[in-house]
Amino acid sequence: MDLNWFPFLLNELKVDRDTVLVGHSSGAVAAMRFAQEHKIAGSVLVAAYHTDLGMETEKKSGYFDEAWNWKSIKRNQNWTVLFASQDDPWIPVDQPRYIHEQLNCEYHEFGNQGYFGGDYDKATFPELSRAIIHRCNEHKKQVKQIP
Question: Where is the signal peptide (predicted)?
């Protein structure tokens, strides 16, 4: 599988085994698909989903043409942290719960975060920052930000 954003992640962002991918919504889907094929340090998935949600645009995206290989996604990274919200207007909470079950990863479910900023201004996300720092420290990876 070589979806159109893989070359960007590899060639432009230089994602490698020391990279932590952070993805929101379709960015979380991209991070999971990337980890399915490539080794990375870890990933943080926000408002993640694993089906086309019955939406035509999602069906056309190519993200869901092949079955997920959850074992590869888990094996190709040291850790995954997942953030979900029960009141997300776009991503039913059963989607991230299923991903959590498949990856057996760290999971944070909120009752009042909606789409984590897509439906309101979310200026800060300290839980996400803490999760990255904690996991990187745990695996002795230096935290650096890609510009």
Answer: none
Greater confidence, 18 or 5? 18
CA distances from 102 to 15, 72, 99 (A): 24, 11, 5
Output the pTM of the full model: 0.89
Domain residue ranges in the chain: 6-138
Distance, in Å, from the CA atom of 12 to the CA atom of 30, rounded to the nearest integer, reads 15
Residue 133 identity: I
> Is the C-alpha dihedral spanning 22, 57, 88, 105 positive or negative?
negative
**Would the pLDDT of 88 be above 60?**
yes
Dihedral pair phi/psi, residue 108, rounded to 5°: -125, 115
Q: Which amino acid appears at position 103 of this protein?
A: L
Note the pLDDT of residue 4. 74
Reduced to 3 states (helix: H, G, I; strand: E, B; else coil), residue 109 is strand
* Tokens representing residue 46 in the block: 């926000």
CA 118 vs. chain centroid, Å, equals 16
Point out which residues pair with 107 in neighbouring strands. 82
